[in-house]
Amino acid sequence: MASKLVQLQAKAAQASQLVAKHGGAYHKQLLEQNKQYIQEPPTVEKCNLLSKQLFYTRLASFPGRYESFWKELDYVKHLWKNRQELKVEDAGIAALFGLELFAWFCAGEIVGRGFTITGYSV
């Protein structure tokens, strides 16, 4: 156990040396590549302004999303009314969609339990 701790410490020291040596250059390169996204002047006030713009822009998108939701629901109601005319391809797509929803639900449950399958943490 002690030898594994020493190995881990050595690897951590090696990684920190690598970051100390190349981290600054990587940071400069990253900023240079993405300078079109940087707002000038970089102040707290500018960050607050951008935060508010993002919030209210997302808030303004709700009516469009609401309308799209009701259109989709009307389409599903129409398909349900005419389910006798439903093609195999449409039924397959619906089944795959339902399976995907179930898989995301299961994944969310696993994440919510702290990545344990049975619910018991070790």
UniProtKB/TrEMBL annotation:
- Pfam families attached here? ATP-synt_G
Principal subcellular localization: mitochondrion
Keywords (A to Z) from UniProt: ATP synthesis, CF(0), Hydrogen ion transport, Ion transport, Membrane, Mitochondrion, Transport
- Cellular localisation: Mitochondrion membrane
| Annotated InterPro entries | ATP_synth_F0_gsu_mt (IPR006808)
GO terms under cellular component: mitochondrial membrane; proton-transporting ATP synthase complex
Q: What family is this protein classified in?
A: Belongs to the ATPase g subunit family.
Its protein name is: ATP synthase subunit g, mitochondrial
